[in-house]
């Protein structure tokens, strides 16, 4: 621990205590006014995500609700935003709904716990060795809100696999639509994307290493920069922003005007101003596809492992050719880029059809979630 961080600790602890006191006082006051209290918490210490879509969700909840936003990061601002150390959550009382889009182990006291899954599709959840640990953490929730039917099937199978010793003690799984996609679509401007930017967005390197493209990233970027005049935008997962390999790639290509490292919290402009996305098994593939209707290139050197890991029946893998193409080695990368313009129309059609088939509450997730939360509170 560096000295600067250590010197900040007393201040941050006091700041967190102050947040707890203010929140509990407000809760007591507004409970007398019969308001329902919803508390959204982001447990990420670096606050590496945009939560505009969460804030937008609560815009139409009405005066009978009071909404708080808590963060495990001090880098926040806003009227109802509070810095709260993760371990301090247990000192918050009388919350009706505790909502998070990162898995938590500590919660506000006696609250209904809802996990809003951040992925749009049934992409692999975690390294297989860590699945049981994830199950034990998710089992602490009361409800799981998921984007589509295929995700509900995946989570049901996941809980059935590990629930032999916790019969009945699992969350209720509910399909809600994908809130983030609806929000982004609502905010799309008219983009005349005349550039040929290529976005590279791999999954977390430690997620499932054998299916990750991270070890080939440098070579892929070299191939693209050598053969094109367009920008290559590397957008690592937030978890990997400061890893050794990411910093090494940044250092290696920093003097090339056609290379850009994107570590912003919001991918909206980056995705819309691009011609395609290159990824491996990241869930962002289908968010990109459904948002932009542009092709995704799936880099998959170990395709035989997809079946070995039991992923071959998941829609994420079965439907890759409906939103893009699969390349199995480095030699195929440039060829795929060169052929993008010839498959754009076909991909756009199959992509749009798939989106409508798979996401039942497309465009209506906000209303769906409000109705569900209202029902849950009535039954409380």
In short:
This protein has 380 residues and is α/β, with parallel strands linked by helices. It has 15 helices and 13 strands.
How would you explain this protein's 3D organization?
- The protein is an alpha/beta fold and 380 residues long.
- The protein is built from 15 helices and 13 strands.
- Strand 9, helix 7 (244-253) and strand 10 form a beta-alpha-beta unit.
Secondary structure blueprint with pairings:
Layout: H1 3-31, E1 36-42, H2 52-57, E2 65-71, E3 81-83, E4 97-100, E5 112-116, H3 131-138, E6 143-146, H4 149-162, E7 172-175, H5 179-186, E8 198-200, H6 217-227, E9 232-234, H7 244-253, E10 259-261, H8 268-272, E11 276-279, H9 284-292, E12 296-299, H10 303-308, H11 315-318, H12 320-323, E13 324-327, H13 331-338, H14 340-358, H15 365-379
